[in-house]
Specification:
The protein has helices spanning about 1-25, 35-45, 75-85, and strands spanning about 70, 75. About 50% of the residues lie in helices and about 5% in strands. The two termini are about 40 Å apart. One of its GO terms (molecular function) is structural constituent of ribosome. Belongs to the universal ribosomal protein uS14 family.
Length: about 100
Amino acid sequence: MVERQRKRERLVAQYAAKRASLKEIANDETKPMEERFKARLQLAELPRNSSPTRLNNRCQLTGRPHAYYRKLKISRIMLRNLGNKGLLPGMVKSSW
C-alpha cells in the first residue's frame, strides 16, 4: 500500500500542471461551451491516480493510514514510541 501511495504521489506531481490548466479552461465561463467541454473530456482521460484527492496521509515511519498527526507526519503509535524513548523534544511521559 505504501508503494501504491508513492506511485500516486509521483503521478500527482507529474500531471499537476496539465490538470490545473485544463481545470482553468473548463471553469472559465468566458470561453465557448465546446472548448470547456473538450477540456473536461481531456481531464477525464488523465489517469485517475493523478488526482490529488486520491492521496492519503500516511505515517512516514510505518505507513499506517489511521491516527495520523499532520503536523508531525507520523501516527499516534510512533508518536508514543518516540516520546517514550525521549527522541521527541518537549515530550515527556505522563503519569498521574
